[in-house]
Amino acid sequence: MKTTRKLCCTALLTSLLLGSALAQPGPGMGGMQGPGASGPPAAAKTAPRDCSRAPSPERCKARQEARTQALEACKDKAGPERHACMQDHRPAPDCAKAPNPQRCETMQQAREACKGKVGPERRRCMGGAAQAK
To answer: What is the Rg, in whole angstroms, of the alpha carbon atoms belonging to the chain?
Structure first.
């Protein structure tokens, strides 16, 4: 009887210890990368694309340049304010090549009208401007 109880207690204790050890996230599984680490891991920051191999090298370079300028302009902002800033600094699409040029133009005008607004205020502005046209 005592050996059965000891065996059960040992099995329970072993399963608890192994279960907690296996449940710890490892690298790349959402765990912290170092002491007090926050933000994306270093591997998440990718190198710029090689535009010489792109289907349209000029367009690729223009997009990279625009992104660099937007990142510089929005570097002191965070959260929804940064997202809105990045959208405001995004280059305008060529509406002549859009599937629905009229809708593209309407959204362009709405984006210009709502520049500088953040969060729910921006969503209301974009929705109202798009519906008014």
So the answer is: 26
